[in-house]
Amino acid sequence: MLILTRDELRQAVPMEAAMEAVAAAFAQLSSGRATVPLRPHIPLSAADDLCLVMPAYLPETGALGVKVLTLVPSNPTQHGLPAIQALVLLFDAATGEPLALMDGAYLTALRTGAASGVATHLMARADAHVLALFGAGAQALAQTWAVCAARRITRVWIVNRTSAHAEQLAQELRTFGTPIPVDVRVAPTARAALAEADIVCCATGSPVPLFADADVRPGTHINGIGAHLPTRREVPGETVARARVIVDQRQAAWAEAGDLVLARADGLIDEGHVVAELGEIALDRIPGRRDETQVTFFKSVGNAAQDIAVAQLASTRARELGLGTHIAL
């Protein structure tokens, strides 16, 4: 069995390749060709602490595996550890043999960024060039990387509660290199960032909306990946109501996506407001946007199909590059 560390995953999988794998996984999911049960949420001791178990089988590509993830939001401040920790185990679908075990935290950020990149490619205006990023945590770099891979971004605005974290991220992004531009700025307010933004990425743990609906310009595309509980939302209900809404998977979205669940509870939308799954757009069954002035919103709660597709890619590329450690169980 192959063991892959975070650094080896970084070397093995470029964002553009991850985006291709995720797009193909979403296509299998929306075509009914993937087996992906709803993930169970196992509450831990503290109110927001969770363990998630996420299996998936993608028969078209022969990818079979499971991700086990823990979410402990207090880890960074109380224990000096990441909030998200995870492992991904990949199996041979024909024999059931364990093939690879890899760091799931980095893979989670990579595949989540890749999903936003795919959504941006399929839904954002072709001339979009300014990104507003809400959040400076574990998902921030991958979100920026993927959006910049999907569109020619010339400026990035960072909006974050803690200015020191925002400045640290800004410096990291400025020195990242292609495709992220060097023009990365920390916004004084959400309104200031949205005044220029063509694309918005929401990647926070906030339980309440991050901005006012009135500040979202016509034609803006929004990726919402932070809120994964039905009691939390990053995007105002009024914005959801006027947006063209695409989700990763309908069943999971209505079970977990507070941005949608709370807007429905407020009487602003019904379940018919969700236009499509991202896989349906990837399959060219429906357009990502109707016109240049439409606000579009991709809401993702994460799906094991993404994890297992990228894990399969990582395993294949790592073997080709001679990366990782082989062990006998």
Walk me through what this model shows.
The protein has helices at about 5-10, 15-30, 75-80, 105-125, 140-150, 165-175, 190-195, 235-240, 250-255, 260-265, 280, 305-320; strands spanning about 1-5, 40-45, 50-60, 65-70, 85-90, 100-105, 130-135, 155-160, 185, 200, 220-225, 245, 275, 295-300, 325. The radius of gyration is 19 Å and the shape is globular. Helix 2 (about 15-30) packs across helix 4 and helix 4 crosses helix 12. Strands 9-8-7-10-11-14-12-13 form an 8-stranded parallel beta sheet. A 7-stranded mixed beta sheet has the order 2-3-4-5-6-1-15. The relative contact order is 0.19. The protein has 12 helices and 15 strands. The model has no long low-confidence stretch (mean pLDDT about 95). It is an alpha/beta fold. The protein folds into 2 domains: about 1-110 and about 305-325, ornithine cyclodeaminase, domain 1 (2-Layer Sandwich); about 115-300, Rossmann fold.
